[in-house]
Amino acid sequence: MTDGEHQKRWLHIVGIGEDGMAGLSPEAGGLVENAEVIVGGDRHHDLAPNVKAERIAWPSPFDAMIETIRGFRGRRVVVLVTGDPLWYSVGARITRSIPADEITFHPQLSAFQWAACRMGWSLADVETLTVHGRAAEQILPWFAPGVRMLLLTKDATSPATVATLLAERGYGASRLTVLAALGGPNEKRFDGIAEGWARDVPDFHVLAVECVAGPDAEILPRTGLPDDAFVHDGKITKRTARALALAKLVPVRGGVLWDVGCGCGSIAVEWMRAGWEAKAYGIEPKPARRDMARANALKLGAPKLELVDGTAPAALDGLPAPDAVFVGGGISHETIETCMATLKPHGRLVAHAVTLQSETVLLAAFDKHGGELQRISTETAEPVGPFHGWRPSMTVTQWAWVKRP
């Protein structure tokens, strides 16, 4: 790194572990010792005693931290964090507001690395997730037989919360291990099973989970959930049509979906299950259906679903630009055109019609804009007296379109 680059990188974010200053590299340790300002939590300051710098605690609210740190530009500034500054840590938040080329990161062993070593698990074969500052229900899509998870937790209540989620879904025999103060002199371990978990544990810990499925365990795909997994009033995008829609919507990590006329939220929920940190906005004018969507989102692991009371296209105003749009209700020429105009480049739009009137709108859109037009028809074997026969579902007309740059 050149002298000019060193001068530009005025902010140092240093990962520190339970062994404190002794565990830092010579470079990182020197930065902390010679800093003019050190920002960190109480625990971080305790791990770096005997330093003469001005000490700043995390501001509240959290976003105030950015302005506080910016105000120290021109001084020797160190931000202390736990472990790896860019793995579920504040480093990622800081880089959204301060350019990365002004920052030097000094990573320490992450909590996930410590925990994997203590458990004897290959980190490459483990799901590394967090419930710190987030709803615990977001880990539900990962529940499956034999899955191993390492979780960053909120506090001492997190293991009991996770244990309850496991037990309610038939994974009560799952093994839980709390690993506290990893790498330090006060390291502790607590083992148990999800069903009946009643251990008192420290606030600061990592939770290791090994999923063990019982006879009644829910084993659900990320997408293509059975219809009876949802609370609904009969008006739901059925499983086969939903799976085809999601394939064309192409869920991606952090992607934004508009689910227009979301009903019970089946498309929005599966979008969020399929893409880690994906976001969905469900536009639905009927309160009863919004309530169903909200319940489904919590039950099926998409707690961040945001529901919008209103009707498109007016209700779309002000929403973040989407990576994908699904129109399953309230189809109109105006809604289609608004969604097409607002989509990001390479964005995908999928619309379903089951009535002749809404099909007419999709035919017109296909004639005008191209894309892909299909009719989806399924038949299901159902009882007919003592026998079985094929019962067809309503045919769905599907129009899919991609916005090219």
Can you walk through the features of this model?
Helix 8 (about 240-250) packs across helix 9 (about 265-275). The chain has 3 domains: about 5-110, Tetrapyrrole methylase, N-terminal domain (Cobalt-precorrin-4 Transmethylase, domain 1, 3-Layer(aba) Sandwich); about 110-210, Tetrapyrrole methylase, C-terminal domain (Methyltransferase, Cobalt-precorrin-4 Transmethylase, Domain 2, 2-Layer Sandwich); about 225-400, Rossmann fold, CATH 3.40.50.150. With about 400 residues, the chain is of the alpha/beta class. It has helices at about 5-10, 25-35, 40-45, 65-70, 90-95, 110-120, 160-170, 240-250, 265-275, 285-300, 335-340, 355-370, and strands at about 10-15, 35-40, 55, 75-80, 105, 125-130, 150, 175-180, 190-195, 205-210, 255-260, 280-285, 305-310, 325, 350-355, 370-375, 380-385, 385-390, 395-400. The chain contains 12 helices and 19 strands.
Give the gist of this structure.
The protein contains twelve helices and 19 strands.
Number of domains: 3
Distance between the termini: 37 Å
Could you give me the name of the CATH homologous superfamily of the largest domain? Vaccinia Virus protein VP39
CATH topology of the largest domain: Rossmann fold
Note poorly predicted spans. Answer: none
Q: What is the approximate shape?
A: globular
Biggest sheet statistics? 7 strands, mixed
Number of strands: 19
Gyration radius, rounded: 25 Å
Structural class of the secondary structure composition? alpha/beta
- Helical content, roughly? 25-40%
**Spatial strand sequence of the major β-sheet:** 13-12-11-14-15-19-16
Q: What is the second-level CATH architecture of the largest domain?
A: 3-Layer(aba) Sandwich
The chain-level mean pLDDT equals 95
Beta percentage is 15-25%
Distinct helical segment count: 12
CATH structural class of the largest domain: Alpha Beta
